[in-house]
Amino acid sequence: MNSASYAVQGTTCMHYVNAVTPKVNAIDGVAVDLRPGDVSQERITSATALDDQRAQAALQEAGYPLVPA
Asked: Can you give the pTM of this predicted structure?
């Protein structure tokens, strides 16, 4: 399994989970472990090689900015 974590801002309610999950799950072989809160670490796990840029784009496309490391 391949995984990566991303810090995402604005994750304060289930609306976030409902908005982000379909975007990230559209990436083949990906499962998401989302934890709502202020700035959350979103862990994305994939059965195949994880395309980091595609994963980040999916989170941002849902309308939630990534927090710089």
From this structure: 0.60
- 22: tokens are 């379909």
Instruction: Return the residue matching tokens 């709502």.
Output: 36
Residue 7: count of CB within 10 angstroms of its CB = 15
Using an 8 Å Cβ cutoff, are 19 and 62 in contact? yes
Residue keyed to tokens 């982000």: 20
Contacts of 15 (CB under 8 A, 6+ apart): none
Dihedral of the CA atoms 60, 61, 64, 65 (nearest 10)? Answer: 30
Task: Supply the pLDDT for residue 50.
Answer: 81
The CA-based diameter of the chain, rounded to the nearest angstrom, is 30
Taking residue 1's Cβ as centre, other Cβ atoms within 10 Å add up to: 9
Domains in the chain, ordered, with CATH?
A: 2-61 (3.30.70.100)
